[in-house]
Prior knowledge:
This protein is mostly helical.
Amino acid sequence: MKASKLDEKFDRGESVIDFLALDKARRPNLEIKRVNIDFPNWMVEALDKEARRIGVTRQAVIKMWIAERLKETR
């Protein structure tokens, strides 16, 4: 099916899910890249305390804080 026909079906509110290759779908710029970083003990303890306080993992706290900072600097 041509893209224009797919667009027409979508615009009419029809389901186009059967025409999509969901097994090959990806989210650009959201692929995971593992990095290692060393923190001093006091920082890890503070991160763990905050993680317990809000009920998430240490990794989630780090990701949230970095994401917030990056949004601020844009």
